[in-house]
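In the laboratory, one determines a bound structure by crystallizing the protein with its ligand and collecting diffraction data. In a computational setting the workflow is compressed into a single prediction: the sequence and the ligand go in, and a structural description comes out. We illustrate the idea with glycinamide ribonucleotide.
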Amino acid sequence: MLRIAVCVSGGGTNLQAIIDAIAEGSISNAQIVKVISNKAGAYALERAKAAGIEAEAVTRADHPDKADFNAALLKAVDLAEADLVVLAGFLVVLDKAMIRKYSGRIINIHPSLIPSFCGAGMYGLKVHEAALARGVKVTGATVHFVDEGTDTGPIIMQKAVYVEESDTPEVLQKRVMEQAEWKILPAVIDGIANGRIPLQRGE
Ligand code: GAR
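The predicted complex, in C-alpha cell form:
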C-alpha cells in the first residue's frame, strides 16, 4: 500500500480528486496518510478532516525563520513515513534538503503544458492569465517529478485542453482543472501505486 503525503496551500480541489479516486477505486493500493498545508485557513485542511485524514498546518506565521520553517516542513513529511509526496497546489518552493531526501518520490501538478507558462512566479491564476495574454489556443496540465529547479523535473503525464475565445482566466482555470488536472494527477498516482510508473529512492 503506497503511503501518500499531500502538501497543499489553498482550496484543495486536486486533493479532493485524489480522495475521491481512492474512494471509488480508480486509485488502488494507495492511502493518503497526511495532508500538510502552509496556510492555517486552507480549505484543503477541511477536506482532509472530512475524509478522516490527519491534517497539519506548518506555517511561516508559526516559523518566521525560513530555515526553521523548512525544518518543520521536513519533519512533518518525515513523520508521515510517506512513500510518495504529492504537491497539489502547494505554493512553497521546497528547500533543497527536502528535495534531495525525497528525490524521485515528489510529484507536482502544474496547470500548463510545461515548458510553457511555468517557472518562478508562475502559479495558480497567473498561469492562465499568461496563456490568454499570449493567445495560445491549447493549454493543459502537467504532472512531473520535482527536482531542484522550478517546474524543471522529468515530465510524467500531460493533458491538453482547448482555449476558447470567450475565456477569462477563471473560466480557463476551471476547464483545465476539470478536463486535465483532476484526471492526470489521480492517474499518475494509480500508476505509481501499481508499479507502472517507477519511483526512485532518495538519499
Ligand atoms: C491548481 O490549479 C494547481 O495546478 C496549481 O494551483 C492550483 C491549486 O488548486 N498549482 C500551481 O500553480 C503550482 N505551480 P487546488 O488547491 O484547488 O488543488
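The longest strand covers residues 30-37. Keep in mind that any predicted model is a hypothesis to be tested, not a measurement.
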